[in-house]
Design brief:
The complex is a heterodimer of chains A (254) and B (555).
Chain A (H helix, E strand, L loop, with lengths): L1 H17 L15 H36 L1 H8 L4 H26 L3 H31 L2 E2 L3 E2 L2 H4 L5 H7 L6 H5 L1 H34 L9 H26 L4
Antiparallel strand pairs in A: 1-2
Helix pairs in contact in A: 2-9, 2-10, 3-9, 4-5, 4-10, 5-9, 9-10
Chain B lengths: L28 H5 L4 H29 L10 H37 L7 H24 L12 H5 L4 H28 L12 H32 L13 H34 L7 H15 L14 H29 L8 H24 L1 H7 L3 H31 L5 H28 L13 H31 L39 H15 L1
The chains are: A mainly alpha (254), B mainly alpha (555).
């Protein structure tokens, strides 16, 4: 009995393949409807972002604990960050989130030209962010603030040796022991912003791929899932920065 | 007449494996390597984890052989450290974590919820490739000289005092972690969004519930391990110091972050196994699982508690007395949902029509051994006794009772239970019953003596030991030999059955559940038409009535 039903099943499955034509081409065969496909992939993206929160969560925990323990070192070390570049970068990222949101809107409205334009703008703003970050990193290199590789505590044991920062904050010299803990601050700074920058690089690479696809019209046929999910990722990376910026740059300014 | 078996096979002289099925649909290596079919990916996973299980098992054999005598005569102490580390790494990250979810879960969950595939087939395939990359990195580590930190990577040992391959192992586990994140993510999305019409949450088989709970742990826990290992790798390569006390870092922070994943990981390993047991117990006692809702929620409860007990791994590491008190108490709480499961299975058996096919034998093995493993867990969760027992063979025996006696038994129960669905053929019943019994006996011989050794004070992770411990160690090694035979047998007869096994038909166990309504092996798309579910899970009365009706209508 099982045999005969099986052959019948096989035949039906063939027939099932044949009436694929009823669905839009972008509907994957294992989904019952476009709505289900959209729901599922969207939900998956949110879950992925949840794992990302836990991923960054480990670093934030380490930062919180170390900051509590070595508060003076963290305050003085954060004075070494350039608040201008940081604010600029925040503005760049928020703008890029806006252009990304506009990109999603253009895809929904099926405006191909606009979509490509907004994706390119997001791409450029992403690169601008990384450019500014590079400037900041190279400044750290010059000042010997690269933990583990090229590090000196001079600016903290003797703040006057760094007149630019001293002029602004009049930091008191730290004991050598506490000054050595500034290295921890800079390690966490590099780990957190580096991990964030890595996410930016991944995002920008995907954006490059999407621009090519968008020019071919892939996202303006009503199938906006890909653009929308990427938008979620981009906004998430943006939000991570929104937390990093005050924690690393702002909360120790007095 | 009381039935001694519920197996109901089609007439062997006319039965054939359906010509069109997921195994035969496409041919060639590429059709496998680029497949999106969850059943093929599950098959790939099954082959790969079996491969790594045997590497890990061989290492376990070497450990037991070394411990046959009190001296370090088979290998040097350094080599021994590497052997038990590689055993742990392979067994935990490359076998236990993906064992049931990535193989059986991958194969059966979409069918159980009435879907054509997992929600994200490409991500599913990606997860297998990540697993393989991780596996290659572990093999590279072994070939290059191994790593000897223990699978826990304790800092600052792993970051400062060893010159073995911590980096490649750490990165391997990082990659394997993402493989498991993607599996979990896929399951959650599938269970939420892909259920067939009528398949409400409380009609889902309990296997789905337990895998759902495990998936939550994978999605929330694994990223924390990933970032922790990144920090360890950075600490070794760039010499930074988050975990280095000399630089103001905190080795305890590593422990907190590591166990925040690795304790839930224990439940990632055991929960899917518990799901298998629910299916098997119900099928072979012909009854609905007693207290379905309680069992379903106990899985979720275990997943929730899992995140609040991690510090019980750190009682001797200098955490405060107050957190010891709190974590000790919270740890005891895990016993509640675990006991709910065990008692409910026992009540399912009560007045059931029990038959003793192989999956059921393994399930009985699970219930006994997991209970012992769980009870000894309470000894270790109580902070007072833990200080005496931790880092001895007591703890080794405890987690092997849970992981090997529990999870591996459940894995084998599941493999035998769904083997006819997977391959279309039955495994040979008599020899597999023998294998189940051999495994159970071998297991107890191997690990029960270790409880005694532990209470006597034999520390874990040493190649040599005082001579008075030898007799119990000889017992343990002898048991490991029997256990080895118990694990080799299934490999042999299951391979044999691929060609010579009896044709299983659609529903050899006369079980309920959507997977038994379709052909074996299933079609690539599982269902010809998406089913409409109109009955509860494990509703054997419903099944009986339906069969009576069919008979009546034919007559």
């Amino acid at each position: 009995m099982s045999d005969s039903t099986a052959t019948a099943n096989g035949a039906l499955a063939e027939a099932g393949d044949a009436h694929h034509g009823e669905h839009p081409a972008y509907q994957r065969h294992h989904f019952e409807s476009v709505g289900q496909q959209f729901d599922a992939t969207n939900f998956a993206m949110w879950l992925f972002l949840l794992t990302e929160i836990m991923f960054f969560g480990g670093l934030f925990t380490a930062y919180m604990i170390m900051r509590n323990w070595y508060y003076p070192a963290f305050v003085e070390a954060s004075h070494q960050l350039n608040i201008g570049w940081g604010t600029g970068n925040t503005a760049v990222l928020i703008t890029s989130s806006f252009t990304m949101a506009m990109g999603v809107w253009s895809a929904e409205m099926r405006k191909k030209g606009l979509l490509v334009l907004f994706l390119v703008l997001t791409f450029i703003l992403g690169l601008a962010f990384l450019g500014i970050k590079t400037i900041e990193y190279s400044e750290k290199w010059e000042k010997h603030h690269i933990p583990g590789i090229r590090y000196s505590t001079q600016a903290f044991t003797n703040p006057q040796s760094d007149p630019e920062v001293y002029k602004e904050y009049h930091d008191k010299p730290l004991s050598p022991d506490m000054a050595s803990k500034t290295e921890m601050y800079f390690f966490l700074y590099f780990a957190m912003t580096g991990m964030h920058a890595l996410h930016m690089i991944i995002g920008i690479s995907i954006l490059g791929f999407m621009i090519v696809r968008a020019r071919a019209g892939a996202y303006t046929t009503g199938h906006v899932t890909y653009v929308e999910n990427f938008g979620l990722y981009w906004h998430f990376v943006d939000i991570v920065w929104i937390f990093l910026f005050p924690l690393l740059y702002l909360i120790s300014r007095h | 007449m009381s039935a001694t078996t519920i197996v109901n096979l089609p007439d062997q002289s006319t039965a054939r494996i359906p010509k069109m099925n997921f195994l035969t649909k496409e041919n060639g290596l590429l059709s496998w390597l680029l497949t999106g079919d969850h059943k093929r990916i599950a098959t790939l996973y099954l082959i790969s984890i079996t491969f790594f299980f045997f590497i890990g098992g061989a290492l376990a054999g070497l450990i037991r052989l070394e411990l046959l005598t009190p001296q370090t005569d088979l290998m040097a102490a350094d080599t021994y450290n590497k052997v038990f580390t590689m055993h742990g790494v392979i067994m935990v990250f490359l076998f236990l974590v993906p064992s049931v979810p990535a193989t059986i879960g991958n194969f059966i969950i979409p069918i159980m919820v009435g879907a054509k595939d997992l929600a994200l087939p490409k991500i599913n395939l990606l997860s297998w490739y990540l697993y393989i990359i991780a596996g290659c990195m572990v093999i590279y580590t072994m070939a290059a000289g191994g790593v000897d930190t223990g699978w826990t990577f304790t800092t600052p040992l792993s970051t400062h005092y060893l010159n073995t391959h911590v980096i490649s192992t750490g990165l391997a586990i990082f990659v394997a972690g993402f493989s498991s994140i993607f599996t979990g993510l896929n399951f959650i999305v599938t269970i939420h969004k892909m259920r067939a019409p009528g398949m409400t949450w409380f009609r889902l088989p309990l296997f789905v519930w337990s895998n759902y709970a495990a998936s939550i742990l994978m999605v929330l826990g694994t990223p924390v391990l990933a970032i922790t290992l990144v920090l360890v790798v950075l600490e070794r390569t760039l010499n930074i110091g988050v975990f280095d006390p000399a630089k103001g870092g905190d080795p305890l922070l590593f422990q907190h972050l590591f166990w925040f994943y690795s304790h839930p990981a224990v439940y990632i390993m055991i929960l899917p196994g518990m799901g298998v047991i629910s299916e098997v117990i119900s099928t072979f006692s012909r009854k609905r699982v007693f207290g379905y809702t309680a069992v379903a929620f106990s899985s979720v409860a275990i997943a929730v508690f899992a995140f609040f007990v991690w510090a019980h791994h750190m009682f001797i590491m200098g955490i405060s007395n107050y957190s010891m008190l709190v974590f000790s108490l919270l740890t005891m709480l895990v016993a509640v949902p675990s006991a709910i499961k065990i008692f409910n299975w026992a009540f399912t058996l009560y007045k059931g029509s029990i038959t003793f096919e192989t999956p059921m034998l393994y399930a009985f093995g699970f219930m006994g051994l997991f209970t012992i493993g769980g009870m000894t867990g309470v000894f270790l969760g109580a902070s007072g006794t833990d200080i005496h027992l931790t880092e001895t063979y007591f703890i080794v025996a405890h987690f092997h009772f849970v992981m090997v006696g529990g999870m591996l038994m459940a894995f084998l129960a599941g493999i035998h239970f769904w083997w006819p669905k997977w391959t279309g053929r039955m495994y040979p019943e008599k020899i597999s019953q023998l294998a189940a019994i051999v495994t159970f006996i071998g297991f107890n011989f191997t690990f029960f003596p270790q409880f005694i050794l532990g209470t006597l004070g034999m520390p874990r992770r040493y190649a040599a030991y005082p001579a008075e411990f030898q007799s119990l160690n000889v017992f343990s090694t002898a048991g490991a030999t029997i256990l080895g035979v118990g694990y080799l047998l299934p490999i042999l007869y299951l391979t044999w059955s691929l060609k010579y096994g009896e044709i299983a038909g659609d529903n050899p166990w006369q079980a309920t559940g959507l997977e038994w309504t379709i052909q074996s092996p299933p079609l690539t798309e599982n269902f010809v038409e998406i089913p409409i579910v109109d009955h509860e899970a494990y509703d054997y009365e419903w099944l009986e009535k339906k069969q009576q009706k069919e008979v009546a209508s034919v007559g």
